[in-house]
Amino acid sequence: MGLTERLARACAARPRRTLAFWGVAVLVAIVLIVTSLHGLSSQGNVEGNPESTQAKDTIARTFPGVAASEKQDVIVVTSSRYTADSPQFRAFGKRLQAALAATGEVRNARPVAFSPDRRSALVSIQIRSDSGAGPVEQVVEKANRDGFAVGITGFHSTGYDFGKQSQTDLEKGELAFGLPAALIVLVLVFGAVVAGLVPVLMAILSIIVALGLVAVISLGFSLSVFIVNMLTGMGLALGIDYSLFVVSRYREERNLGFAKDEAIARSGATASRAVLFSGSTFVVALLGMFIVPTSIMRSLALGAILVGIVSVAAALTLLPALLSLTGDRVNSWPVPILGRNLGRADSAEGRFWRRIVDAVLRRPALSLAVSVGAMLALASPIFGLHIGANGVSTLPSSLPSKQGYVLLQRAFPVQNPEPVRIVAVGGDPKVLLDNLQRLQRRLAAEGRFGAGRIQSAAPRVVGLLTAPVRGDPVGGAAVAAVRDLRANVIPSIFDDSGAKVYVGGVTAENVDYFDAVTNPTPYVLLFVLGLSFILLTVAFRSIVVALVSVLLNLLSVGAAYGLLTLIFLDGHGAGLFGFQHTNVIDAWVPLFLFSVLFGLSMDYQVFLMSRIKERYDASGSTHDAVVGGVASTARIITGAALIIVVVFAGFAAGKLVMFQQMGFGVAIALLLDATIIRSVVLPATLALLDRRSWYLPRWLEWLPHVEVERVSSPSPEGAAAS
Question: Considering Cα of 339, then 343, then 349, then 351, what sign does the dihedral take?
Answer without folding.
Answer: negative
